[in-house]
Amino acid sequence: MRIVNPEDAEDIVQETFLTMAEKFPCVRLQKGLLVWGMGILRRKVGNYYRRANRTAGLDQEIVDASVLRVVQSQPSPESHFRRAELQTLVQSLIRELPPRERIVMDLVLAGLATHEIVDLHYPEPYQNVTNRIHRARGRLLKRLAKYGYRVYTRREKSGRKPAGWVSGRGSSGNASKGHG
Question: Are 47 and 71 in contact (CB under 8 A)?
Fold first, then answer.
C-alpha cells in the first residue's frame, strides 16, 4: 500500500514510532524490532485507508443535496425506540455470556479493533483472544436470532449462495444444501 500524501505518510510513521515507544517496555519481541515495527506500520496504513473510505462517500461536492438531507435527517421515533430496544437486548444478552467472552464483547462494542483487544490481553496468545471474540459474536448472534433479529453475512448480502449450496438435488429431499 502506498500513501500518496506526504504529510499523511509522515504522520503515520510518527504514530508508528509513538506506538513502538509506548508498547516497547511490555512487549516480548520474538521476531525482532524491525519486523515488529513494520507490523505496526502496516496496521496504521490499513487504518488510514479504512478511515479514508468511510469519509470518501460524504464529500459535499459529490453528494446530491437531497441525499445529504436524508442522511442528516433525524431518525423517526419508531426507529429510535427500536434501536434503544435492541441495545438493551444486546446488553442483557452480553451479561449472560461467560465472563471471558463478556469482557471481549464489551471491548468490541466499545469500538476497539481486534488488535487493540489482543494488546489489552497480553501475554495471552493472539489466536486465543480472536477465537474468544469469534465465539462470543456467534453466541450473541444465535441468541439475537431467538428474538427475531437476523444478521446477514457478507456472502448473503452480496447475493452469493452459501458454501455447500447445490440447487435441484433430486429426490433426496435436501434441495438447499448438497450433502451427498
Answer: no
110 φ/ψ angles, rounded to the nearest 5 degrees:
-75, -10
Task: Give the total number of structural domains in the chain.
Answer: 2
- Residues 128, 153 contacting (CB under 8 angstroms): no
pLDDT at residue 178, rounded to an integer: 44
Cis check: omega of the bond before 123, within 30 degrees of 0: yes
| C-alpha cell of residue 13 | 510513521
* Total length of the chain: 180
Q: How far apart are CA 143 and CA 90, in angstroms?
A: 9
Residue 69 in any domain: the answer is: yes
Evaluate whether 165 touches 176 at the Cβ level (below 8 Å): yes
Domain of 27 in residue numbering reads as: 1-73
Give per-10-residue mean pLDDT for the chain (180 aa): 78 88 72 80 84 54 52 68 86 90 89 89 90 91 85 65 49 44
Same domain, 68 and 101: no
